[in-house]
Amino acid sequence: MRRLSKTIIATAVTCGLVSVAHSAVLPDVQSNSPWFTDGKAAIDKQLNLAPKKKAKNVILFVGDGMGVSTITAARILAGQRQGDTGEENVLSFEKMPYSAQVKTYNTNQQTPDSAGTMTAMMTGVKTKAGVINIAPDTDRANCDTASGYELKTALEMAEEKGMSTGIISTARVTHATPAATYSKVPERNWESDDGLPEEAKAAGCKDIAAQLVELEAGDGIDVVMGGGRRHFIPETTTDSEGKSGKRTDGRDLTNEWLERYNDQAAFYVEDQSSFSGLDLANTDKLLALFNSSHMEYNTDRLKDVGGEPTVAEMTEGALEVLKKNDNGYFLMVESGRIDHGHHAGNAYRALDDTIAFANAIQYAMDNTDPEETLIIVTADHSHVFTIAGYPQRGNPILGVVKSTDGNGQPKADPSLAADGMPYTTVGYANGLGFADYGDGNGGDQRYGDDAHAGRADLTSIDTTHSGFHQEALVPLGSETHAGEDITVHAVGPGAHLLQGVIEQNVIFHVINQAAELGGVAYQ
C-alpha cells in the first residue's frame, strides 16, 4: 500500500505534478496522493498525441465483471444468435478507435472488489477493497479513521461545474459501483441505515442511500435509475412489489427526493409503464427504482409485474433528460448483473446481460456527437471465467466441445475428457459448480443449493439454455473475481489518451483532462 507522506507530497509539488486544475476543488489528501499525481503524470505523456478538444459530455459505461473472456464469449454468442459462426462478430464498443489494458488491483488485494476499483476510476486514487471514495490511509468500516480522507468524485466535479449528471445501474443504485460516483463510506455494505453500526452513526457516518438524496455538489444528481428501492423506504412501508423497506430511521428518501426538487419537474417511478409514460423532454429530475433489490437479469426482466426497462432504454431516457443542459453532462451506466451471473456460475445470464449492455452502448454511439462526447467503456474487474478445450469454429459457445478430426473436419460427436464424459467450452475455476434448473430458471436460484464440486455427466443435458450452471474446479459458496487486466475502449475527445497498459486510476484523469472538470486542462 502507498501511504501519503510529507516527502512524497513535497516531491510531487516540486515536480509540478499537482495541477492548479485541482488545487481549488479537491481536498489535499486527494490531489496530493501519489496515486493521483502518478495518474496525472501518465496523462501528461499522452497530451500531444492528438489535437486538444474539450469534451462537452462524458459517458462512462462500466460492465461489472466484464473481463476479456466475457467479452469474447459474448461476442461469439451474439454472432451465433444472428446465425453466424460467431467468432468473426464484433460488439459495439469493440469498434471504438482507442483501447488499453487496465490493471485492477486494490491497494490491499491482488484480486480486487468493485468498491476499490470504481473509486480509482471516479477519483484518480486507488484504495482498499470494500472502501468507497476514502483514501487508503484508513481502516475499512471505521468512520473515525476515514475522517479527513474523503475523496471528491468526477460526478461531483461535474455538478460543481454546472453540468447535468446521471447514474444508471441494473444492480441496486446503492451497490458499490454506482455508489462510488457520489458517496463516501469506509464500508460498501452500508447501503441504508439498517446496516450502519451505532458507533458509525455516532461518528457521523451516513448511509449510501441518504448520501445520494442529500448530495451537496451542484444541485444533486439529475437522473438516477436502477434497483435498490428497499434502501430508500422505511421498514414499515411496502413498495409496489409488496416488499418492505430496510430503513430503521423512518425516512422515506423517495419523498425527500421529490420535496428537494419541488420547484422543478421532478418525478419518482417504480415500473416500466410509469417510466414509459414520462415526458422526458420536460423532465428536470428523475429517480426511478425498478426493483426492491437488484433489477432482474435481462433474461428474466419481463417476468416482473409492471416490467423493467432494458439498460438501453434507461440510457435513452437518461440522455433525453441530460442533453438539455448547454453545459453538458456526465453519465455513468453500469451493467451490474454481468457480475452477478458469473458469481452464480451462470454464463448464460452473464453473457446475455453483456449483449444487452453492448446494445446500450450502441445507442449512445448512434445518438451522441463524437466531436463533443467522450464515451468510455470498461469493467471494474474480471472473473475466473474460462474459454477452453479445442472446439471447432462455430461450436455453440455455451455448448459441449466438439473438435475437428485429423483432417480439420468437424466431428459430429462431443469430445470426451479423460474421465469419459463430455465437457463445455466455458467454465469456472471456482464457485458453486454444476446445476441444471431447466430453461427459464436458474440465475440467483443457485445460491439456495449446495456447491457441486468437480465433474458431472453432461451427455444428455442441454448446456446452452438459461438454467444451466457451468462446472467449477474449486467449490466455493460463490464464484470469485479474477485479478488479470481488463480492457478499456473509447471514442470522442480525449479517447486517444487511453493506450497501452495503464493503472485503473488513470481513467479518472482522462475524463478530467477531456472535460476539464477542474476548470482547466492539465496543459
UniProtKB/TrEMBL annotation:
Pfam families: Alk_phosphatase. Residues 1-23 form the signal peptide. The keyword Phosphoprotein applies. SUPFAM superfamilies: Alkaline phosphatase-like. Keywords: Phosphoprotein, Signal. It comes from Kangiella taiwanensis. This is Alkaline phosphatase. Belongs to the alkaline phosphatase family. The lineage of its organism: Bacteria, Pseudomonadati, Pseudomonadota, Gammaproteobacteria, Kangiellales. It comes from the Bacteria.
